[in-house]
Please model this.
Amino acid sequence: MDTESRKYIAAYNQLLKACDTVYHNAAAAAGLSDCAFWILYSVQDSDHTCTQSEICDNSSLPRQTVNSALKKLEKDGYLTLRRINGSTSKSIHLTEAGNALAQKHLLPVLEAEQRACDAFSDAEKKQFLNTFQRLVERLNTEICQSLKEMD
Model:
């Protein structure tokens, strides 16, 4: 295997894990599981009412994991789930306690993200996202191909 490529992959994986740790620490500081944190983050950051399906799609978290975390957040009084008319989907609504938790722990994270991103030019942000998206797509293609070959 190409040594330079292996170094690149190791650095890439290390950065992904470091980023996960940043958000894990934010979740822990709020007294939340990572999944609960991402649910509240999604609801706080959205400009519309979120559903469980949207959270699963946007976070790449398993449906059952999200469902369990939603039930716990509901039990703890941070949100309510309301069935959407004519659908099996439920909309997620923060309670007063959920809004307070989001203001205290999620809003500072969103603001910190904004400040971090503001340190880069629009061109740098666009280039990073384009490159990262191409890498993820390429990884998916190559890994799926490798898995097919194993069968």
In short: The CA atoms of residues 15 and 97 lie 34 Å apart.
